[in-house]
Design brief:
The chain contains 11 helices and 7 strands. By secondary structure, it is an alpha/beta fold. Strands 3-2-1-4-5-7-6 form a 7-stranded mixed beta sheet. Strand 2, helix 5 and strand 3 form a beta-alpha-beta unit. Helix 7 packs antiparallel against helix 11 and helix 9 runs antiparallel to helix 11. The longest helix has 18 residues. The radius of gyration is 18 Å and the shape is globular. The termini are far apart.
């Protein structure tokens, strides 16, 4: 497995695959935002929200759709350009979770959609607490393909064998509650199940937007993607795949 810094350096490859990321990455079901409101103890409508590591704005647009006064925070130029193209009218600030470019006590909620693992918790947690208003909350969530489903497990095994030093399934995701607990936060977690139906080609485009694939040289990337396409076409001869997701949500509330 890549070292800590080497792993975080993978995030620098997202800019080159921003279009693929926007086109193929999974969205989030309404139930996520219902649970977010419940665990945060407030409605999104009217809340000042910072969406950190916003990428192309998949979560940002959904937060805005729930009435949040949301600002996207994104360090990548390429992802930021795709965000502006896909999310007209929504504000974007260049920055990252370890050094939030915002005043103290200026946000009600800070979110990290598929993004908290790119931060350094010893920096990002105190930064979030600094920026949050009393009684505010921070929330991190991830879509993870359900490894108990046979075809997902087989795909994970293939990629792990092909890319043993780069491929990681983010087994540490559930530890975010442990990372936040030392800061005196009230932490809750919930796991939601949902699925989407997409084509094999859509799955491959999604895979191409993964940092560990985007970081490969062109020939190796092509070989990995074509090999996975062939395996999935054999598994799903009609060309359609039902992707089962576990949506892992952790919310931490600050004292009022």
């Amino acid at each position: 497995m890549a070292g800590d810094q080497e792993f975080r350096d993978l995030a620098g490859h997202f800019g080159a695959v921003a279009a693929e990321y926007e086109r193929a990455r999974p969205s989030y079901p309404d139930a996520l935002f219902d649970e977010l409101e419940r665990l945060a103890g407030r409605r999104l409508a009217g809340a000042r929200v910072l969406d950190v590591g916003a990428g192309t704005g998949i979560a940002t647009r959904l937060l805005a759709g729930r009435g949040a006064d949301v600002v996207a925070v994104e360090p990548s130029d390429g992802m930021g350009a795709q965000f502006l193209a896909a999310s007209p009218g929504l504000p974007l600030v260049r920055g990252n979770g370890d050094e939030l470019p915002f005043h103290d006590d200026s946000a009600d909620l800070i979110t990290y959609a598929q993004a908290y693992h790119w931060t350094r918790p010893e920096r990002s947690a105190p930064e979030a607490i600094r920026v949050l208003r009393p009684g505010g909350a921070l929330a991190a969530w991830w879509n993870v393909a359900d490894p108990e489903v046979p075809w997902v497990r087989s795909a994970n095994e293939r990629l792990s064998e092909l890319l043993p030093e780069a491929y990681r399934q983010f087994d540490e995701l559930n530890s975010v509650a442990e990372q936040w607990a030392p800061y005196g936060l009230e932490v809750d977690t919930v796991v939601l199940r949902w699925e989407r139906r997409v084509t094999v080609d859509h799955v491959i485009t999604d895979l191409s937007s993964r940092s560990y694939v985007a970081a490969l040289d062109a020939d190796r990337r092509r070989a990995v993607l074509e090999g996975e396409r062939e395996a999935l076409r054999a598994e799903f001869p009609d060309g359609w795949v039902t992707e089962p997701y576990l949506l892992d949500l952790t919310v931490a509330r600050t004292p009022r």
